[in-house]
């Protein structure tokens, strides 16, 4: 028999009952209810991986994130479960991708080279550099710069979900979880996490406008590159380029800014 369709009040009661009893039956209802969320997150990630990973494998990994989210979610905190669960599902998928180290060393090296060069250039000019300026600094054509962006696009999705933590890992934050409140009660950890969160927000605000829109739409509004492209009136591949450039700029800003905090 299919699970009943629940209104908001009934769902809240379901969560309260589950948190009280930890019933396997209720957990299974919640898993079935939110399984499409796992498929949605996996469906967003797989096109960015350049054909190197399988959709079904990502869904399998994402299920562990969903179960973890269900077990740890606190409905009294005022955060929507979908907002909370997406980060856990994505995190579970990325943990698996990191563990299998699917990115070729040459691609990692290329990403680092471009990140450093963009950082040096933007420190020199004091603003976000244009594609033409970056290409010139790399001593390549704009077309080649765009090709390189496509080569490293998979690393960009992983990188923006990396945890930015202090030396003792007491305070962590990611690009995509800055909308969530920290669960920690340790005042030092809370202060440290807040500094990291403020650094992330400041770095995002310094991005060119279109790159800001892409990051917000992808990580906060849960849109695919195709959906973002349609909204902005550009191609999916252009959105991928903008996302990857945002990643390179943000990683450099966050790495340098973190040195100032720690």
Helical region count?
Answer: 12
Strand numbers in spatial order across the main sheet: 1-2
What structural class do you assign from the helix and strand content? mainly alpha
Poorly predicted sequence stretches spanning 5 or more consecutive residues: 163-172, 179-185
Residue share in β-strands: under 5%
What is the strand tally?
2
Question: Which helices and strands appear, and what pairs or packs with what?
Answer:
Layout: H1 8-21, H2 24-45, H3 55-72, H4 81-100, H5 105-125, H6 131-138, H7 142-151, H8 153-159, E1 164-165, E2 172-173, H9 187-205, H10 209-220, H11 225-232, H12 236-261
Antiparallel strand pairs: 1-2
Please tell me about this protein's structure.
The chain is mostly helical and 262 residues long. The protein has two domains: 8-100, Orthogonal Bundle (Rna Polymerase Sigma Factor, Chain: A), CATH 1.10.1740.10; 105-261, Butyryl-CoA Dehydrogenase, subunit A, domain 3 (Up-down Bundle), CATH 1.20.140. It has helices spanning 8-21, 24-45, 55-72, 81-100, 105-125, 131-138, 142-151, 153-159, 187-205, 209-220, 225-232, 236-261; strands spanning 164-165, 172-173. A two-stranded antiparallel ribbon has the order 1-2. A hairpin with a 6-residue loop joins strand 1 (164-165) and strand 2 (172-173). Helix 5 (105-125) packs across helix 12 and helix 9 (187-205) packs across helix 12 (236-261). The longest helix has 26 residues, at 236-261. The N and C termini lie far apart (55 Å). Residues 163-172 and 179-185 have low confidence and may be disordered.
């Amino acid at each position: 028999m299919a699970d009943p369709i629940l209104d908001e009040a009934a769902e809240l009661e379901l969560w309260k009952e589950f948190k009280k009893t930890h019933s396997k039956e209720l957990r299974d209802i919640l898993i079935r209810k939110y399984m499409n969320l796992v498929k949605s997150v996996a469906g967003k990630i797989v096109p960015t991986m350049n054909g190197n990973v399988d959709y079904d494998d990502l869904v399998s990994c994402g299920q562990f994130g969903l179960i973890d989210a269900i077990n740890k979610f606190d409905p009294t905190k005022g955060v929507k479960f979908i907002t909370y669960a997406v980060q856990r599902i994505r995190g579970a998928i990325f943990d698996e991708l990191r563990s299998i180290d699917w990115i070729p060393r040459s691609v990692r090296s290329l990403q680092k080279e471009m990140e450093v060069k963009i950082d040096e250039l933007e420190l020199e000019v004091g603003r976000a550099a244009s594609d033409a300026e970056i290409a010139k600094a790399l001593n390549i054509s704009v077309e080649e710069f765009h090709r390189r962006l496509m080569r490293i696009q998979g690393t960009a999705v992983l990188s923006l979900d990396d945890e930015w933590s202090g030396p003792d890992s007491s305070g962590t934050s990611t690009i995509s979880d800055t909308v969530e409140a920290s669960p920690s009660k340790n005042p030092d950890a809370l202060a440290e996490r807040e500094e990291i969160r403020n650094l992330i927000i400041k770095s995002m605000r310094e991005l060119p406008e279109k790159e800001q829109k892409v990051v917000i739409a992808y990580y906060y509004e849960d849109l695919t590159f195709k959906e973002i492209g349609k909204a902005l009136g550009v191609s999916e591949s252009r959105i991928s380029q903008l996302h990857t450039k945002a990643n390179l700029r943000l990683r450099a800003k966050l790495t340098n800014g973190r040195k100032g905090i720690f």
